[in-house]
Specification:
homodimer; two-stranded antiparallel ribbon; Pnp Oxidase, Chain A; alpha+beta; 12 strands
């Protein structure tokens, strides 16, 4: 994995790919599937996400204020769904789904070696957690897997239906 | 356009398509391109989005507390980029880009007839507007264009590069 410049982080999340949220608490890591996230700021990259209070990851995120957001390639689709179908309360998802991890640089949660990008984050605002389960995160370091850079990602359309990235088009935009 | 059931609204936005945000203020409508949005709740459908204070739409959204989020098909890609390349301060984007509108049911902002879905929204939380330009909206009515339901959408990857929805896959998910 190579460092992904902070200025490029939004290009990983703005297209709305299904992501994996990795946390660690009391030395035990966990991972969940997440589709409710958006960019908030380019630099420093800030990201908002919704993590339900019913998710096992909620407590870890709330208590540690740290996580990794990983963007899986479409080739991981079956594992992405299986990760979402079970809870870290009951199983070690890393062992069950053969998820290779690497230590992060600045947070306790591990990186996922098979993902396109890994974004190390810290919670910077929890004022809407109580009302909406909405966390605002700031990226503190991020990683790109060059071999997977062009891999298609998954876009969830409900009930296990996903659109994969297809044709790429380029238009003259003045917008970043 | 047919009514889209509230329970299906998230399926339009969760996949992360580029959207159009339509507002109206003092009888004058405006539209901007938006990629920073996420689902917050299934039902009632709640949506968070970032609208920069530099955007002309910001004042209309702030003052009226109402908008329409429209999901354009990929066939509108050039107009979607052009809409983002100019400001409603300077031009009537509906006239310039030949955008056909229809009256909404519950908000003053109009619907975009050529879009896949139109979601009428009201602002329900503005507590993070000052810090992050983050609005939380609640859908009050929504519309689907049945003829465009299967149309691919656009996923922005930065600087005018878009991935179009490609292959559709279906996996056994216990998650909605």
């Amino acid at each position: 994995m190579k460092t992904l410049p902070m200025a490029h982080v939004y290009q990983m999340l703005e297209p709305g790919p299904v992501a994996l949220l990795v946390t660690a608490r009391d030395g035990k890591a966990n991972v969940m599937t997440m589709s409710w996230h958006m960019m908030v700021e380019f630099e420093p990259p800030r990201i908002a996400c919704i993590v339900s209070g019913a998710d096992h990851s909620f407590t870890a995120l709330r208590e540690t204020g740290e996580c990794v957001i990983a963007v899986p390639p479409a080739s991981m689709a079956e594992r992405v769904v299986e990760i979402g179908n079970c809870s870290g309360r009951d199983v070690d998802k890393f062992a069950r789904f053969h998820l290779e991890t690497k230590p992060a640089k600045l947070v306790a949660a591990p990186l996922l070696a098979d993902c396109i990008a890994n974004i190390e984050c810290r919670v910077i605002d929890d004022s809407l957690v109580e009302r909406f389960n909405l966390f605002v995160l700031e990226a503190v370091h991020s990683w790109i897997n060059p071999a997977l850079r062009a891999a298609p990602t998954l876009h969830h359309r409900g009930w296990g239906e996903f659109a994969l990235d297809g044709e790429i088009i380029r238009l003259k935009s003045r917008m970043r």
